[in-house]
Design brief:
Structural class of chain B: alpha+beta
Radius of gyration of chain B: 15 Å
CATH superfamily of chain B: Folate-binding superfamily
Number of domains of chain A: 6
Mean pLDDT of chain A: 94
Organism (chain A): Sulfitobacter aestuariivivens
Low-confidence stretches of chain B: none
Oligomer: heterodimer
Family (chain A): Belongs to the GcvT family.
CATH topology of the largest domain in chain A: Gyrase A, domain 2
Keywords (chain A): Oxidoreductase
Strand content of chain A: 25-35%
GO molecular function, one term (chain A): sarcosine oxidase activity
Number of strands of chain A: 51
InterPro entries (chain A): 2Fe-2S-bd_N, FAD/NAD-bd_sf, FAD/NAD-binding_dom, GcvT/YgfZ/DmdA, GcvT/YgfZ_C, GcvT_C, GCVT_N, Sarcosine_oxidase_asu
Strand order of the largest sheet of chain B: 3-4-5-6
CATH topology of chain B: Folate-binding fold
Strand content of chain B: 25-35%
């Protein structure tokens, strides 16, 4: 039985009882409980099932290293899977449910797997589920998904809010235990800007539980004193419930602050992600106790010795009436002593060591009447869903049972491992500490910053010192060193306080208990509780040749569970080293990657969700479109009207109407999003000749020319109309999505290749609103507005002119992307809406209607005009598209020219642009491939072309398409077969891509 | 995430403010060049473990390109210099020599 004691629980507020549920059962705890401590107080030791064998799993630890106690938390918009009970604060109304069981926690069908464990060894996924291949999808995976799985994915939208926080400091201290606080005080008093992050909601770390005296006062009072003093320092920021999640290059740190996890009903963000730049980082992250590997060490009731002590001291919870302590070090004696002081029974301390004389703590334990069994170990733990006893053996032997001790809890300690994760994230190296059998930071090989100097310093237990006085001295030395290196003066009177020194006996590494455990025992000695990896699995991996630690990890799944091996790694490494007959440091560790402990996905997203997910660019006429039925299409960060729906018509009908209306009467297109780049300077013409495949330096002032741009690799990257304003000024139109990219492209060449050329480029895209006035009535509408002469004689096709229309200062380009009489008119952005309104009024009797991007696409496709991104995809050169006329033969050089001379680019068998017309008038499926005779070397049908653009043309009353076809232009009239994904075959004839007005008579009027 | 200093405007900022532009000091080969030279220019890039000269653009800042000398292994930044240069400045090279004695011989 685990239960709440009448007294004790230093973190509890017993005046504030709290109600919560677990698997629908109503339970009670206190403010200050974690979910784990409250479950234990209600005798709910069984909290889940293991991943593979569905073994019953109980709470093992008291912190983020907990491997088993993962629960589904909350409901609906506050549902969260895989929440760790040990780090989940209890609050009134909390709902938790256990995971990974089916149909129930108490009775689990999958538990049959444990009887099959002989057949499910390491790598069983790789071995068993390989064949037959189809069975994986239809048999194995559905069964595994049904009976296993950790947590459920949330279905509802998260109702909480999250935020990012940016901060800068001189020293970021991760960990608010005695080491972190003392380092913070030293740095704070030296005048540095300090941030301290503590993952739990209380200061002091383990020290207040483990006891001791500093400067003559109990350590918890010493902690309180430090916190009080730190709170008075304005240059120090203290954050509790804030975990240092990851250390990244050049002193970048992510902190994960949980603000409302204990009070979901309170307004405000739930989590806050701190994005900190620190000149230096001190990792005072403490240490984690290791389990011992003995048979049955996974039975609920077997816990870490320090966790048993934590629950007792912090939460007034006894995990059992009779607790056997098993250890290889002195620290676990503190648990036995604390239990005894609380009036609980400790039948024995089973200590694997044989020591010449008793240490201070051993003497204390013995004085309390506890039986200390030196040189002994646990052969096996008895029990199913709960410990009922232990069988004792000699540690040196093979597991012959000497006696059985009945108990309902086992507190184990295999020694302590410094939390080196944050030290290691950015490349800090480790060294093996033989005396304490742990990896600790190799301070001579720290992670390096921008200046090539180390930017992380470990302090306290995180650097591998565990005694209280050592911890304080180490923290002071760390802070002192960091302050000096950053150029701060540490006040002379600052020094490390005096802690009472306890003489502990050395620990003894124990990687298997008993050391000669038989196969039968090894098969029950767990290393990774969540993933069901046992000593026998790691040995098998080694035997099968997985000698690298990274390979053995993946083969056995050791350390791959959500706890990322916080408990299992070192024991696993040591087991592997043992199996390989190698020493531990030569086997090495797997890589430590951030985050240290899982953080919520929502905190990473922060505010970037919903309407503020990303900025949206709006043209000056955006709101007008919105109120006139626009269906929006995202183009880059812009939103453009796809079509304007009238009445109850469908989108398709709207598009068809817009095409017909524009061809027969008049249409308006908001073309403001098109990129507009001013290129100016004495060398601008020469520069544009390099940028475009055709000649721009010869363009006459007052004229426009369509141009193509290629990358240095020869591929088409953008197109648009270029106008020459004066002797040294050009305006280059780019595609909507290309403005910033092409601007950057130009700048790159100007700044890094031809930096002696006198050219400036300015992106004026947003300075102008641009309206395309298109259709046979376009001129009449402009004449109605009145002002400049827009006749053919005054303003011919491909001319531009400045002037005035309807009182607006305008720049008019006679260019056409539709094949109709067309004026693209630019006005100052601030006049965009007014000008648009004026055009709608002027065009009212002329049949004016706005049109969207889909209509624009059909108009251009009917004319055989290419579209960047449809006809081009980054692998297409202009020559593929029949655009030879736009490639200068005279120029010696332009970007892409040399590349286009390569043999593959001049291959006559490159697919070429053609028009495609279905034989029955239907619309070809977009992206469909034309099949050819025979098969390729992979047994697939040979291909001879593909569709790049395809539409129904209302003008022609049939489906039209463009495509790239092998030797296409030479095969006019031939019929190709395009199999669709719908199972049908489409037949299309190769035709000229210009379907509408091939002579261009309509646009040149 | 690196911290870099823009040589053009002097601002020291997060990597997210910059855009990486690959190996510095490439020599352009255009029409008339051999296939080998053109291939070398267009595709072949140094990938040293250690000292590397790179192009960066202060894309979300002043918009200017500049050069950075950096250690690809330790991420130490030796300095930034003008984009309008055919080779790193001598002063920078000697600073790198101080930090990485003999690095030039390793190429």
């Amino acid at each position: 039985m685990s239960t709440r004691l009448a007294t004790g629980g230093r973190l509890l507020n017993k005046a504030k009882p709290v109600n919560f549920t677990f698997n629908g059962k109503n339970l009670r705890g206190y403010e200050g409980d974690t979910l784990a401590s409250a479950l234990l107080a209600n005798d709910q030791m069984l909290v889940g099932r293991s991943f593979k064998y569905h073994r019953p799993r109980g709470i093992v630890a008291a912190g983020p290293e907990e491997p088993n106690a993962l629960v589904n938390l909350g409901a609906e918009g506050r549902f969260e899977p895989n929440a760790r009970a040990t780090t989940t604060p209890l609050f009134d109304g909390l709902q938790a449910a256990s995971q990974n069981h089916w149909p129930s926690l108490e009775f689990d069908v999958g538990a049959i797997n444990k009887h099959l464990s002989r057949f499910l060894p390491a790598g069983f996924y790789y071995k068993m589920f390989m064949y037959p291949r189809a069975a994986w999808k239809h048999v194995y995976e559905p069964f595994i998904r049904q009976s296993a799985g950790l947590g459920k994915a949330p279905k509802a939208t998260d109702v909480d809010t999250y935020e990012h926080f940016y901060a800068f400091c001189d020293v970021l201290i991760i960990g608010g235990g005695v080491a972190g606080l003392h380092a913070a005080l030293t740095a704070g008093k030296s005048g540095a800007r300090v941030i301290v992050m503590e993952q739990s909601d209380h200061w002091g770390g383990r020290a207040p539980v483990d006891g001791g005296t500093v400067d003559g006062q109990p350590v918890d009072k010493f902690v309180d004193g430090m916190v009080t003093e730190l709170e008075t320092l304005e240059n120090v920021t203290l954050r509790r419930n804030c975990m240092g999640a990851g250390v990244y290059d050049h002193g970048y740190v992510l902190g994960y602050e949980r603000l409302r996890d204990d009070s979901p009903h309170v307004q405000g963000p739930r989590h806050r992600l701190w994005r900190v730049r620190a000149a230096h980082i001190i990792t005072a992250t403490g240490a984690i106790e290791r389990p011992l590997s003995f048979a049955g060490n996974d039975i609920p009731g077997v816990m870490l010795a320090a966790a048993v002590r934590d629950y007792l001291v912090n939460h007034g919870v006894s995990v059992g009436d009779r607790t056997v302590v098993v250890t290889n070090n002195d620290n676990a004696y503190l648990t036995a002593i604390a239990l005894k002081h609380a009036g609980l029974d400790v039948p024995a301390i089973v200590d694997a060591r044989v020591l010449p004389q008793d240490s201070q703590l051993m003497e204390q334990a013995k004085a309390l009447g506890i039986r200390v069994m030196m040189g002994h170990g646990i052969a096996s733990v008895k029990g199913g869903k709960r410990v009922t006893g232990v069988e004792i053996c000699a540690q040196a032997g093979e597991g012959a049972v000497l006696e059985e001790i009945s108990c309902d809890a086992v507190a184990m300690s295999g020694g302590w491992s410094p939390v080196v994760h944050l030290w290691s994230h950015c490349g800090g190296k480790l060294r093996w500490d033989t005396t304490q059998a742990c990896f600790s930071p190799d301070v001579d090989n720290p992670p390096l910053g921008a200046d090539g100097m180390g930017f992380v310093t470990p302090a306290g237990a995180a650097s591998g010192v565990f005694a209280l006085d050592d911890v304080l001295n180490d923290a002071f030395a760390a802070a002192d060193g960091v302050m000096t290196s950053l150029g701060f003066d540490v006040p002379r009177d600052l020094k490390s306080p005096e802690a009472e020194r306890r003489q502990d006996a050395p620990m003894m590494p124990v990687w298997l208990m008993p050391q000669g455990a038989s196969v039968k025992l090894r098969e029950k000695a767990w290393l990774d509780y969540q993933n069901d990896v046992k000593v026998s699995d790691v040995r098998l991996a080694a035997q099968e040749g997985f000698v690298s630690v990274e390979h053995a990890k993946r083969y056995t799944t050791l350390g791959m569970a959500t706890d990322q091996g916080k408990l299992s790694n070192i024991n696993g490494l040591a087991t592997l080293a043992g199996a390989l007959d190698a020493d531990i440091p030569s086997v090495g560790t797997t890589t430590f990657r951030p985050p240290y402990h899982p953080i919520s996905m929502a905190s990473i997203a922060g505010e970037a969700r919903g309407t503020v997910f990303q900025p949206i660019r709006r043209t000056p006429m955006h709101d007008w479109h919105d109120t006139h039925g626009a269906e929006w299409e995202p183009v880059g960060h812009w939103r453009r009207p796809y079509a304007y729906k009238q009445g109850g018509e469908s989108t398709y009908d709207a598009v068809m109407r817009e095409v017909t209306n524009t061809r027969e009467k008049m249409g308006l297109l908001d073309a403001s999003t098109l990129g507009k780049l001013i290129v100016k300077g004495p060398d601008a013409g020469r520069f544009l000749d390099m940028m475009y495949t055709n000649m721009m330096s010869t363009l006459k002032v007052g004229k426009c020319r369509y141009g193509l741009m290629c990358s240095e690799n020869g591929f088409l990257i953008d197109d648009g109309v270029v106008a020459r304003f004066d002797e040294d000024t050009w305006l280059c139109h780019t595609t909507t999505g290309g403005a910033e990219r092409i601007h950057g492209h130009m700048e790159e060449w100007l700044q890094t290749e031809w930096w002696d050329w006198q050219v400036y480029v300015a992106n004026v895209t947003e300075q102008y609103a641009q309206v395309a006035v298109v259709g046979p009535n376009a001129r009449k509408a402009l004449e109605k507005l009145g002002g400049m002469d827009v006749s053919k004689e005054a303003l011919g096709f491909m001319d531009w002119a400045d002037g005035e229309l309807g009182g607006f200062k305008v720049r008019v380009y006679r260019i056409s992307f539709s094949g109709e009489l067309s004026y693209e008119i630019a006005v100052d952005a601030s006049h965009g809406q007014a000008f648009w309104d004026a055009l709608m009024v002027a065009g009212h009797d002329l049949g004016v209607m706005p049109y969207g991007t889909e209509c624009l696409h059909i108009l251009r496709a009917e004319k055989g005009f290419i579209m960047i991104g449809d006809e081009s995809d980054g692998t297409i050169i202009p020559q593929d598209l029949g655009l030879h006329w736009a490639i200068s033969k005279k120029k010696e050089d332009y970007l892409g020219k040399r590349a286009q001379e390569r043999s593959h680019m001049t291959d006559p068998n490159r697919w070429q642009l053609v028009g495609l017309e279905t034989t029955d008038g239907s619309v070809l499926p977009d992206g469909a491939y034309a099949v050819a005779e025979g098969e390729n070397e992979n047994g697939q049908r040979n291909m001879q072309g593909r569709v790049t653009s395809t539409y129904h043309s209302p003008t022609l009353g049939k489906g039209i398409a463009m495509g790239l076809v092998l030797n296409g232009p030479d095969r006019m009239g031939e019929t190709l077969i395009f199999p669709g994904t719908d199972g049908k075959e489409y037949q299309a004839k190769i035709v000229n891509p210009v379907f509408y007005d091939p002579k261009g008579e309509k646009q040149n009027v | 995430m690196l911290v870099l200093t823009c040589h053009a405007c002097g601002v020291t900022a997060e990597e997210t403010e910059f855009h990486a532009g690959g190996e510095a000091h490439l020599k352009r080969f255009g029409p008339g060049s051999s296939d080998e030279d053109f291939e070398e220019y267009l595709f072949m890039r140094a990938n040293p473990k250690g000292v590397h000269f790179e192009r960066w653009r202060h894309a979300n800042g002043c918009g200017k390109w500049f050069h950075v000398a950096r250690d690809t292994m330790t991420l130490e930044v030796f300095g930034s210099y003008s984009a309008q240069a055919f080779a790193p400045p001598e002063e920078l090279l000697s600073r790198i020599e101080d930090r990485r004695p003999g690095w030039r011989g390793q190429d």
